[in-house]
Amino acid sequence: MKVKTILVSQPEPKAENSPYFDLQQSQKVKIDFRPFIHVENVTTKEIRLQKVDFSKFSAIILTSRNAVDHFFRVADSMRFKVPDTMKYFCQSEAVAYYLQKYVVYRKRKIYVGKRTFSELIPMINKYKNETFLLPSSDKLKPSVPKALDELGLNWKQAVFYKTVISDLSDLADVYYDILVFFSPSGIESLFHNFPNFKQNNTRIAVFGNTTVKAVENKGLRVDISAPSKDTPSMSMALERYIRKVNKK
After folding, report:
1. What is the pTM of this model?
2. Do residues 54 and 93 both lie within one domain?
3. C-alpha–C-alpha distance, residues 107 and 12, integer Å
């Protein structure tokens, strides 16, 4: 079946040169964006109960832009002035670039991984004498603390924000040819909002192995997956699939 409509379970990109907009034009498909999950603040009171003493840490591990935002939000709310000597370990270039919103990049000690957390581990290992703080959501991949524990680091996780399921009730009678997911939380949101969801002819596109497992655990079919050697991004995987089925 040809693809005409796609729903991406993330906010609409702010950049005008997003590959999704290029895909929409080149393949003549309609792409809608809708976050299936959203982030909410953890209050200062809740954070104090976690006994987080910012002054005890010499390095911060940042796995996402949300982690960046909420680290500085909480530091500000607790009247903690982040010292210039603080080291920042960013999971990807995108996270490191976003960090410039809060610090003067060239004057800080910033270490950057390639893309995944496992690719950041060798960099962290070079500085294992530091005391690390990992600001995160309430839904952290188990592989992250496991990897840090295996290094024998002095580190602490602090939940600074929560991942919350969005209300999608207005989509109850809306059909899309492809649904695109980037995390197990997105799949959880789908079934929370639509407990009787049946895949039928809907194609499901997923990013990452943990998301693939979440889809399969629900008895659904994965039709498109990324990253791969040939399609490192979701937009590339979608384009390859659409070119194939729409030319028939």
Report:
1. 0.78
2. yes
3. 32
* Residue 113 contacts residue 123 (beta carbons within 8 Å): yes
Q: How many residues appear in the chain? A: 248
Residues of the domain holding 16: 5-36+176-194+203-213+225-246
Tokens of 211: 């998301």
Measured in Å, how far apart are the chain's first and last C-alpha atoms?
Answer: 9
d(CA 191, CA 198): 10
pLDDT digits (tens, 9 = 90+) for 45-61: 999 999 999 999 999 99
CA proximity to 137, closest of 78, 60, 62, 189? 62
pLDDT of residue 248: 62
C-alpha distances in Å from residue 78, one per residue of 45, 53, 73, 86, 113: 10, 10, 9, 17, 29
Buried b (16+ CB within 10 A) or exposed e, 30-66: ebeebebbebeebeeeebeeeebebeebbbbbbbbbb
Q: Are residues 98 and 31 in the same domain?
A: no
How far does CA 218 lie from the centroid of its chain?
A: 21
Cα–Cα nearest to 181, from 169, 168, 170, 173 = 168
CATH code of the domain in which 63 resides: 3.40.50.10090
106 vs 213, residue with greater confidence: 213
Q: pLDDT by residue (tens digit) across 84-120?
A: 999 999 999 989 999 999 988 777 799 998 878 989 9
Nearest 5°: phi and psi at 162? -120, 145
Task: Report the amino acid identity of residue 4.
Answer: K
Closest CA to 151 of 112, 123, 173, 183: 123
Helix (H) or strand (E) holding 186: helix 184-193
